[in-house]
Amino acid sequence: MTATLSTDTVVQIGLIVRDVEATAQAYAELLGVAVPQWVLTGPEVEAHTRCRGAPTEARAKLAFFRLGNLQLELIEPVGGPSTWREFLEVHGEGVHHIAFEVEDMQDQVAALAAKGMPLVQRGDYTGGCYAYIDSGEQLKVILELLAND
Amino acid sequence: MTATLSTDTVVQIGLIVRDVEATAQAYAELLGVAVPQWVLTGPEVEAHTRCRGAPTEARAKLAFFRLGNLQLELIEPVGGPSTWREFLEVHGEGVHHIAFEVEDMQDQVAALAAKGMPLVQRGDYTGGCYAYIDSGEQLKVILELLAND
């Protein structure tokens, strides 16, 4: 059987939280590391953020932890509309996505859409871009694709 | 700062699903692998399953995928009460836990309880035992500790 996804290595687990500072503090204590400073995602004019095809002023406060075999990302939604805020409203706090790093972003997005898992949100960050896939109905978690330059 | 957890490697991501066969089929297509056969957890008399300290006849249908750097576990709750069923009722389908393999199970459970994250469910399986930690309030996801013989 041919895989739809070109990789099977989970590079990141992303959690939606209401208070990034409080949750970062809890993980820092669990892991015995310093509390990371959160960063704010860029504005739409920089990040070209699109949610369901439309530009959005949604942003998020992010904090990252380097675990042994992947990265943990804490996401506090700011503004809206976004997949982050939608998740918080529907499910509450919890794991929003698992991320895979891909080289062929456009082909991967197209292949997943052909399997009934369309793009829900995309954006750019310094050094790359991300795409969230509306895979919850089939996979019970959102997939994030990351393409780094 | 001293870590509460003795490891930072995520060995498993566990998802609660309503239909393990349908979700296993979706992941098999995504990853280009054969659909794994689900297995039923042992009865209480074998698995010594305890939920909030009391024996429970809760069981689950499990299916596993080996990804590049960790294991994906699909969990369909059967019977109750269990942390699996509670999660489904509160959050719906989605990521229930991230798992870490530990050698010092009793010490780890005690250390987490001392930090306000008590044991919520435990059980045995062939070759080891598991403990779910009620860490949702602080960490926004349940921790599972796995100790293999």
Give your account of this protein's structure.
2 copies of one chain form a homodimer. Chain A is an alpha+beta fold and 149 residues long. Helix content of chain A is 26%, strand content 37%. A 10-stranded mixed β-sheet of chain A has the order 2-5-6-1-7-10-9-8-3-4. The longest helix of chain A is centred in the first third of the chain and has 12 residues, at 20-31. The model of chain A has no long low-confidence stretch (mean pLDDT 96).
Key features of this structure:
homodimer; 149 residues; alpha+beta; ten-stranded mixed beta sheet; 26% helix; globular
Describe the structure concisely.
2 copies of one chain form a homodimer. Chain A is of the alpha+beta class and 149 residues long.
Oligomer: homodimer
Question: How does the overall form of chain A come out from the CA principal axes?
Answer: globular
Any low-confidence stretches of chain A, pLDDT <50, length ≥5?
none
Strand content of chain A: 35-45%
Most residues in contact, chain pair and counts: A-B, 40 and 40 residues
Q: Structural class from helices and strands of chain A?
A: alpha+beta
How do the strands line up in the largest sheet of chain A?
A: 2-5-6-1-7-10-9-8-3-4
Query: Average pLDDT of chain A, to the nearest integer?
Result: 96
Helix content of chain A: 25-40%
Helix count of chain A? 5
Our measurement of the CA-to-CA distance between the termini of chain A, rounded to an integer number of angstroms, reads: 30 Å
- The total strand number of chain A stands at 10
Sketch the major β-sheet of chain A.
Answer: 10 strands, mixed
Rg of chain A: 15 Å
H/E series of chain A: EHEHEEEEHEHEEHE
